[in-house]
Amino acid sequence: MGSKAGILLKSIHYKKCEEVIALLERGGVVVCFMCPEVSYSYDRKWQGKNRTFYITNYDWLLSHREMELGAIQCGKGTNVHYVDSAHPFFEYLNTKPSWSAYVEIANCENWKVLSSVFETHALALTKRVGLGHIVLLPSYYDYHNGELLERCIVKLMGHREPRPQPSWAKTISVPGQQEIISQIADTNDQITALEKKRENLVNGNDKLESWKYLLYEKGKHQLEPVVREALALLGFDVVPQADKDSDGLVVCDYGIALLEVVGSEGTIRVRKVGQLITNIGNYVSEKGGQPKGVLVGNPFCNEPLDNRPPKDNQKQLFAIELLESAEKQDITVLLSTDLYEVICRILNNELSEIEKKSLQERIFKGKGLVRLI
Question: Is 368 left (phi over 0), alpha (psi -120 to 50) or beta?
């Protein structure tokens, strides 16, 4: 194993070892299914020289294990003997799990052997460490035996679960307890306030993130609502409409306009302006007056901004026929990416009300492609 990987493994084992020690100090039980020992080497500097160190797959569990058990050997079998029927783990070991590793019984002086084979190989053993227990079991494990194993652990711990507190004891306050309860209440209030603050910050960030839809999104539920919000921030009154009418009714001092929003992975085709012309005709026949048309497009929405249209080809952002038709029909064509730049200027307080009015006028009095930046 390379030096960096070995040092990383040592760091992981060190953290695991700390967790095991803390658990055992509190009276917990650590169960390990014995597999053959594997040793890894890694290099690091020590006292100014490059030295080779070794780490095994058991170093996270047992400090100075080699002085207590020796190596955990490789071996396979299904026979199990010498089961201690009085031990809490007897019920589990009595299922006769197969094994792929063992420890020499001669090296188990400080451990209690729970099962063995050949009178020389310890297959399951346990040791009291602090208030807790380490239990080494044969390698095979069937998840169907999970509840059985859990019962064995509970038995080994001696059913130390606390009794439910009687009602009369709940009224008794231990000296110093009320102060802690008060601090808990204050902390809960602070947590609630921080959670609310975080929620507001997340919502604010999500709102700002949604402006990026002007750069890469398309569709009725993504690009279209953000375009309407952008026009509203620019000072227009924007009202969503039924799908058959338009993508929005835009109103300002310069008049009324019907909105068409479209995003595309390629060039935006002429049929999109055709739909807008149809909507304008329907509006005139139903309500009278002559609304303007505004088409906001996001062509090549999957491409980086500096590659629209893609280099080294003859493609255009908008089809020539679309722009020619827009010119003839007094329709303004806008890029959603230009709207994004305008929004950024507004959010940075770089756009005055007079400048907003000027942009409104350009949109309503322009025709064909109108650049806002």
Answer: left
